Amino acid sequence: MSHVDISERAFGAIFLGIVVYFGLVIYGSFANEPLATLAAEFVFGVIAIGLGTLLYAVANATRSVLFGAAIALVAGGVLQFGYLLSHVLAVQQASIIDHASSIAVFVGIGLYVYAVWFDER
């Protein structure tokens, strides 16, 4: 089993983003602070797009599992920003966009785990 080659600096930034995300989610939940929750949703989108971009850069082929993970993560991040915009504009379908974003990110993470586990590039 091989790992995907991502620089330590990029890995550190992703890890920090995940820590900040969970910190904001926990704080927003306990303090009932909508701004912290909104910030967590924004960080979620940034992490998804950032990780997807990194995976796209290291994918060897456009028909690889890693490429699929990259596309799913970027799509999830873009959908997350669409959700934030629709939430601000009070669009009725905001929850559908939020669910689609979460599903796309989970698919991307699942494909990434599969690619690393089975060394698929």
UniProtKB/TrEMBL annotation:
Keyword hit for Transmembrane: yes
Give the residue spans that cross the bilayer: 12-30, 36-58, 65-84, 96-117
Keywords from the UniProt entry: Membrane, Transmembrane, Transmembrane helix
Lineage top rank: taxon: Archaea
Q: What is this protein called?
A: Uncharacterized protein
